[in-house]
Amino acid sequence: MQTPILQIDTITLDDLFSVEALAAKHSSILTVPTLRWQLRFRNRNGLASACFHLGKKLLISKSRYEQWLSSQAERAIA
Fold this sequence. Notes:
Elements: E1 16-17, H1 19-25, H2 32-40, H3 42-45, E2 51-54, E3 57-61, H4 62-77
Antiparallel strand pairs: 1-3, 2-3
């Protein structure tokens, strides 16, 4: 019996941002307080899969954050 191969989503360093950097990159729609509020409840709202700790620094995967945001929008429409 073969062991199933796990597919791992690759995240590049270019995809990781600090809270401040992600808010600055998309300053027309994101603010640091908004991101911090979302991140405070990341284990409840599903955003935890977009977050990584590098030492004490919390980094956010931009692509996974966008997927999470899209799923939140879809949930709001339904």
